[in-house]
Amino acid sequence: MESYAAGETEPPLLEETIGGNFDRTVAAYPDHEALVEFASGRRWTYRELNHDVDLFARGLVAWGLAKGDRIGVWAPSCAEWTIAQLATAKVGAILVNVNPAYRTHEFTYAVNHSGLRMLISAESFKTSDYRSMIEETRAETPGLERVVYIGTSDWDDVVAAGEKVDADVVNERMRTLQPNDPINIQYTSGTTGYPKGATLSHRNILNNGYFVTETINLTDNDRLCIPVPFYHCFGMVMGNLGCTTHGATMVIPAPGFDPETTLRCIAEEGCTAVYGVPTMFIAMQNHPTFRDHDLTSLRTGIMAGSICPVEVMKHCISDMHMEEVSIAYGMTETSPVSCQTRADDDLDRRTATIGNAHPHVEIKIIDPDTGETVERGQPGEFCTRGYSVMLGYWPIDDGASREKSVMAIDADGWMHTGDLAEMREDGYCNIVGRIKDMVIRGGENIYPREIEEFLYSHPDIEDVQVIGVPDQKYGEELAAWVKMKAGATPLDADAVRAFATGKLAHYKIPRYVLVVDEFPMTVTGKIRKVQMREETTAQLGLAGQGHEAR
User: pLDDT tens digits, residue range 3-42?
Assistant: First the structure.
């Protein structure tokens, strides 16, 4: 049997905008608790949340933000993130997710590439001084007209502007919007050096959020703890939109993940579901106070980012009471989920697979060389097709971006993921590797070419190649092979870190640096990164750690 499968076609797709769907939920559950910010104690019913969303949306209209204008959010998870997400959707402005870990180099690129007119930003978080970085890059981001800092009078100014505008302006704007309009840009690192902006529509992300939570049987009686970040699809689509499409409660445990705070949040807020990557669940289960928290309210949740270890899944079911926990697989360009395990799947399917085809989505495994669909049980490239496939890379009308989109999405609408997978006889799939050399460090997808392009700017580096090597804690870590310019003092990891700090996100800075005279090459002159990985693993004594097998 061929490696092809199609998901269920019932219930039907939601053919509406995010704002239209949200208004329907507000009408159905006006007094139901919609949003809880555990750290601050702030909470909203759906009626109260809609009031704040509409006021902010009216403020955006008053400030001249038009349909299709880009508004960025650069902040950790917080209530204002959710309000901005829903308000921009109501006025048709395209929300640009800016990774909170970005530094000046990446931030400047995202602002200019997306054409941000307005930025909503935290002032600071952990080691990130966003205000300073924004001021430092002002001369390099001339198109950025306004910055609204969360928690300051800036936010109040937007609301005050909205209070002066007729309440019907948002409804008037919403009547001009269509489900297939672009509404979100999410940056994903590209193999050609700079990040690519996956452009997603209302239809893309509204439906994916809806069906992800349909699959775990979420209802208006559920309370979802969302410790995963909102800048990523896991938080703002699977989390926020998964809740708003069902009248469920969004619970934000903290701006950033903390295992003990998340456990307290689940217990004190009576959460029935929780999201996380496997390392988050491991951190919670191994926390010294784990047994002190009453988690009996939990029923379900989603684990994504990598395959879940069997023991972790067993603990989720037996110790965290998540009998219906689900595994999901996807990528930003597909809104994100393409495969997911079902609530009644056995332990084998929930630990050995990424699930089967999502509702209204087709999947197939092909021979990367011929494009032919392989037989079940044979490895090949994972491809997916359906409503969830992005509109394209931003800017979607630009020739260069169209070329990148065509490379990813073929003429028949299939998204080629670059992942190597196998489909079992039962239609469930398993990821077995990656065609390209993407590194996954602690759940963050990193493409070495972006880091290489940056390190080329170092005055003493002649050439550089970046690879992933196994790591016990993060699965993979980055190692850079560096060829120095003649007469230059050899660099070490500390020197590279000093050069990159403040310009690259911390997780993109190589942990290991090896100074070499040459790189292993094929007879045709291509770099042999597989050999580099093997040699580095042996030289650093990393065998047996993390994702060693490739």
Answer: 999 999 999 999 999 999 999 999 999 999 999 999 999 9
Low-confidence ranges of the chain (pLDDT < 70): 189-193, 306-307, 433-434, 522-526, 546-550
Residue 417 lies inside a defined structural domain of this protein: no
Spatial strand order in the sheet of 361-366: 4-6, 361-366, 380-386, 415-423, 429-434
In a domain, 477, yes or no: yes
* Residue 507 DSSP label: G
Beta strands in 453-505 (DSSP E): 461-471, 475-484
Which pLDDT belongs to residue 312?
86
Would the CA dihedral through 442, 109, 416, 95 be positive or negative?
A: positive
Rounded CA gap, 385 and 372, in Å? Answer: 15
Cβ pair 382, 395 in contact under 8 A? no
Token pair, residue 527, equals: 């770099």
- Burial of 366: CB neighbours in 10 Å, binned 0-12, 13-18, 19+: buried
Q: What's this model's pTM, rounded to 2 decimal places?
A: 0.84
User: What end-to-end distance do the CA atoms of the chain give, in Å?
Assistant: 27
Question: Which CATH number fits the domain that encloses residue 477?
Answer: 3.30.300.30
For residue 73, the cross-strand partners are: 97, 120
